[in-house]
Write a structure and sequence with these properties.
With about 650 residues, the chain is of the alpha+beta class. The chain has 4 domains: about 5-130 and about 140-175 and about 185-225, no CATH class; about 245-365 and about 365-400, no CATH class; about 405-460 and about 470-555, no CATH class; about 565-650, no CATH class. It is about 50% helix and about 10% strand. It is built from 25 helices and 18 strands. It has a 6-stranded antiparallel beta sheet with strand order 9-15-14-13-12-16, with helices on one face. Strands 5-6-7-8 form a 4-stranded antiparallel beta sheet, covered by helices on one side. It starts with 5 loop residues before the first helix and ends with a strand.
Length: about 650
């Protein structure tokens, strides 16, 4: 989002042009590769023909919503090339070219004529409005609109998801709180106009716009999810098992530009590890078992990752930023992308072993390396590794999962009549009684099969519900978790293992239900609608039902429906929409609920997180409108709960 001060922008034009010409002459291969790939990801490079194709599958109202999310998108989508076609589609027969006077803006014409249509429609509705639609599911409109995107998913482009970044990362304000006021500053002082940013945020939170922003961003997000699933599915089809992790890594580059940062140094790491391995092991090869040799190889890799320097900027620039391969992986890990880092590790290991022809007989999956070793039971060792170290397990230690698979009939019965069908009390008892844990919650599967812990950490006062709550500007742990689960599900379907299908489908349903994402519903409908399996149909019917009920899982024994929330606290001092401050962090109250007589509030904080907190925590109501706008104006997700921000009452309505 361009929020630049025009004066500064013009002042720096010549300097920027000169720098741009110099930059093009750089010969550093790593930087050139990274720059080329990053530029490819820019939505500026998409031609109008592509946008016209995309908008031809959308309703004009949806195009309006998309335009609201981003100034760049607005500039692209206001083109006469696009709106002339939409005008023809809306009011004229597309079989011929209508004779219309040439206009400066078909968008303006469309808006004027559409307004007349709306006025007529409103008159009709006043006559026919004999019943109320207030009880309609709040997600239904969003689901109906996002369905349009799925008409022809093959026409969407890998980098289209970058539209969801409706503000440039550099424009995010850093807030510095003083004793009396909150002052907005930026990383490039004087370059961004804080007042202009504030005015833009106020506009985003204005009446009737916030919900539209939420719908527009959700549509863009569904495009990204669709491409994500299509990519993982195609990668698996190319190589059923073991997965071609090299192909997977390259495919992820089309989804997530952050992977470009890792590619330039990758081949150097591989070459170093192969050279050092041969110098260390090949001379005395018979003195090591294959598992010991594999451990040596992994340790060489991990040590090299920690010392491999990379330049985020070009090394010849005045202030080059130097980082390390390991730092980038850690950054991705702690931003929620733990599984993405594991793909990077395993893909490198696979490449190294392929080049060390004949040294190892292995199978690589997403979680471990299964190594042929005659000194282990069943002649197999299972090698798990991460930054913390390397763990080697025997077949017996990983056999628990097979015990569960010995009773597929009982498993299917349990899944088909499982936790989604339970009453509240039954569900609570089932989760608390771990001796009767179903496959969905078997602890071994969580640890070693899926390598994803439950996305919750309960303390006495707070429960995390999501990592980003659809904050679209950061890599989301939801993306990676669903990518992993979906890949497991498709793999089991391709291999025809009914038990694995049940296991993975049930886990997928849990995540779909957990995040209540309409695009997950669409993905399920799109992918499974042609499947003959009654079992799959039954499982995903449950998934769809869960989404339509709009339930949010708080923790294992409880399921919260948005309908269970009430708007005013028992103490009458707080209400839905109030903005609170606690230890320097701002929260918006979304609603209140009770559990065993204790009152909690569901709250949305200034980091984009949704959480539950006890009401006995010390709080202070915030009345500084500027602080509220700057902290929350960034989040489209607020449109899920509120219509707008009221500056008079300092609350969200």
């Amino acid at each position: 989002m361009e929020l630049c001060n025009n004066k500064n922008k013009n002042k720096n034009t010549n300097t920027n042009n000169t720098k741009s010409k110099e930059d093009k002459t750089k010969t550093d291969s790593r930087t050139n590769i990274s720059t080329t790939m990053t530029n490819t990801a820019s939505i500026y490079d998409l031609p109008l023909e592509v946008w016209s194709l995309i908008t031809s599958y959308l309703e004009p109202q949806d195009v309006f919503y998309m335009m609201l999310t981003n100034k760049t998108v607005f500039a692209l989508l206001r083109s006469n090339y696009i709106w002339k076609n939409l005008v023809y589609q809306r009011w004229f027969d597309n079989a011929y070219t209508p004779t219309l006077p040439q206009m400066d803006s078909y968008l303006v014409y469309f808006g004027y004529r559409n307004k007349q249509d709306d006025n007529l429609q409103n008159l009709i509705e006043k006559v026919l409005n004999l019943c109320s639609f207030n009880d309609k599911n709040e997600w239904q409109d969003l689901i109906d609109q996002t369905k349009i995107i799925w008409k022809n998913p093959d026409n969407f482009i890998p980098k289209l998801h970058s539209m969801s970044q409706h503000l440039d990362e550099k424009c995010r304000l850093q807030t510095t709180t003083t004793t009396t006021t909150t002052t907005a500053t930026t990383t490039n002082e004087g370059f961004y106009d804080a007042e202009l940013v504030k005015a833009h945020f106020k506009s985003r939170l204005s009446e009737k716009k916030l919900k539209k922003l939420h719908i527009g961003s959700s549509m863009l997000e569904s495009i990204r999810f669709q491409k994500l699933f299509a990519t993982i599915y195609n990668a698996i089809l190319l190589d059923k098992y073991p997965q071609n992790l090299e192909q997977m890594l390259l495919s992820l580059n089309h989804i997530d530009p952050h992977y470009y940062e890792l590619l330039p140094a990758r081949q150097r790491v591989i070459n170093y590890v192969i050279t050092e391995y041969r110098r260390t092991v090949d001379v005395v090869k018979d003195d090591y078992t294959s598992t010991e040799r594999l451990i040596i190889l992994i340790r060489l890799l991990m040590s090299k990752l920690k010392e491999e320097a990379m330049y985020v900027r070009e090394p010849s620039s005045e202030n080059p930023e130097v980082t390390y391969f390991e730092d980038l992986l850690l950054l991705r890990c702690y931003s929620g992308d733990t599984y993405g880092s594991q793909i990077v590790f395993n893909a490198i290991i696979e490449s190294i072993i392929q080049q060390l022809k004949g040294c190892f007989q292995i199978e690589i999956n997403e979680h471990c390396i299964i190594n042929q070793d005659q000194y282990f039971p069943h002649e197999k060792s299972y090698v798990f590794f991460n930054r913390a170290g390397i763990t080697v397990k025997t077949y017996k230690q990983v056999a628990d999962i097979y015990k569960i698979r010995k009773s597929p009939k009982e498993l299917m019965k349990d899944l088909l009549h499982g936790w989604l069908d339970m009453t509240y009390e039954s569900r609570k008892f089932s989760y608390s009684n771990r001796q009767n844990a179903t496959i969905c919650f078997h602890p071994f599967i969580y640890k070693n099969k899926f390598v994803i812990s439950r996305p919750l950490n309960r303390s006495n006062n707070e429960v995390k519900l999501t990592g980003q709550v659809m904050a679209l500007t950061y890599p989301s742990s939801v993306d990676r978790a669903l990518l992993l689960i979906f890949s497991e599900l498709i793999t089991s379907m391709l291999t025809g293992n009914a038990t694995e299908i049940c296991e993975n489908a049930s886990y997928f349903i849990e995540w779909v239900n957990y995040y209540s994402l309409p695009c997950m519903l669409l993905m399920a409908e799109q992918f499974f609608k042609d499947r003959d399996s009654k079992l799959i149909a039954s499982l995903f019917t449950k998934a769809i039902s869960a989404i339509e009920l709009n339930r949010i899982t708080i923790d294992a024994p409880n399921v919260l429906s948005m309908n269970e929330l009430y708007d005013k606290s028992d103490n009458k001092e707080l209400k839905k929409g109030d903005v609170l401050e606690n230890s320097g962090k701002y929260h918006i109250i979304v609603g209140f609920l009770k559990d065993d007589g204790v009152e909690f509030c569901l709250r949305f904080d200034d980091q984009g997180d949704l959480s539950i907190s006890r009401m006995n925590n010390a709080r202070q109501i915030v009345t500084d409108n500027d602080s509220i706008v700057v902290r929350f104006g960034f989040y489209d997700e607020l449109g899920r709960f509120f219509n707008h921000f009221d500056p008079v009452t300092h609350t969200f309505v």
